[in-house]
Sequence to fold (370 residues):
Amino acid sequence: MKFLEEFRDAEGARRYAEAIAKAVTRPWTIMEVCGGQTHSIIKFGVDELLPKDLTLVHGPGCPVCVTPVELIDKAVAVAGMPGVILTSYGDMLRVPGTKGDLFSMRAAGGDVRIVYSPLDAVKIAVEHPSRQVVFFAVGFETTAPANAMAVHQAKRLGLENFSIIVSHVLVPPAMEAVLSSPANRVQAFLAAGHVCTVMGFAEYEPIAARFRVPIVVTGFEPLDILQGILMAVRQLSEGRAAVENQYSRSVRRDGNGPARALVSEVFEIVDRKWRGIGNIPRSGLGLAGPYRDFDAEKRFGVAGHSVEESGECVSGLILQGLKKPPECPAFGTRCTPEHPLGATMVSSEGACAAYHRYRRFGEGALHDKA
Fold:
């Protein structure tokens, strides 16, 4: 398949691995931000191709994983109310809150539906004018334009039976939070290519300059990731700290102008709590003034709910690059995809799910599939 097979070429991967080994001059730790990149790294054994002095750690770039517990509880509560149709993406249904998950609510009779686009939820609202339709809007900057368009369309259509629970988070503040931690071990980042397709990468330039860390915007296939690692290692070895764009086939510095404009119209920047990490100032999106009537939390009276997280799950340490999934005592025993303790085991982009699927039995690297 064009634009896919050529980025999974085994010989190309070996050449990149050799170049990386030659460029490494001392121990370095690099964090890939995106959960999609994490899955590629673990699935194809990219990390096992690297020299021992180079460590990859996994970042907070899984939006399902960082959705706070209280928002799951709010979604579950709203889904159980009479006359409500709650919609979301499939991987949100199994994320545990303190009182169950959306899958359990559906099994108990709640009208919880999986959709593939927030515009599907708008269509359901049009087709069911007597029901309240709620979309659980989760994601980074990547999904924000589609969710903004759904709210924009609902307002244009005058839909009074459509609203959203907003759990949008932003990547740059999370990177700053990781770098500001006294326990930080990250010396360079592989930034998420799909986020930058929308937002561009100009926002990363002040971070690279302030913290003196290389940031390489990177794609998701094995050769993308290996090239991004090589670019980051070369910067580290040369003492540089700049933003570079490996994913040039999809990303431009200023991103997608119309998409950014729509997001800025519908949403505003707010403080946001991240599951396993805590509150990060100005790290999320909330509905802006003209669109606040579509806020499901206020509409259904659940806005003030707050809960404490379970202390058994170490997903917060994993999302900050301080631990890897196999270091959790519950990994693969008390915590599995069927019975997860935390969202990193549930989401299709979660680091724990990746290790459980591809490394649970200690398989070696999938070099031949790279």
Notes: DSSP finds 15 helices and eleven strands in the chain.
